[in-house]
Amino acid sequence: MLIDVSLDSSSFSLPVENPHHLDINEVMRKIDDFVSLKGMTLNGLDIQGLLPRMIRGIAGCESGCPANALDLVSAGFANFDLKYIEGGILSAKAVTGEGRQLSIKMFPDF
To answer: Which branch of life, at top level (predicted)?
Structure first.
């Protein structure tokens, strides 16, 4: 699985070896480092709560079952605009307190 984080026009990708045993603290540290290099903080954005839900939305759907992803998109999450993209990709976008566009895309391994 791959997590792609974009802030404005900058981005970085983070491979996830085993999505069922995600080290959320390590992932959050890397995301925090990335956004802080861009002069931003994640205050008010619950990325730590979002990522495990996105993983549940697409992990285990290697046979093409977007139901969990579609349920997540339908239910929504906090102040993120969620979209299911064909091929098992989930996208979450939010506008930060500084008015900047933050985007997280999660790509499955199948």
So the answer is: Bacteria
Question: Measured between alpha carbons, how far is 5 from 94 in angstroms, rounded to an integer?
Answer: 12
pLDDT in tens, 70-93: 888 999 999 999 999 988 899 999
SS3 of 13-70: EEECCCHHHCCHHHHHHHHHHHHHHCCCCCCCCCHHHHHHHHHHHHCCCCCCCCHHHH
Angle at 44 between CA 29 and CA 31, to 5 degrees: 20
SS3 97: coil
- Number of Cβ within a 10 Å radius of residue 40: 18
What is the Cα gyration radius of the chain? 13
- Its pTM stands at 0.89
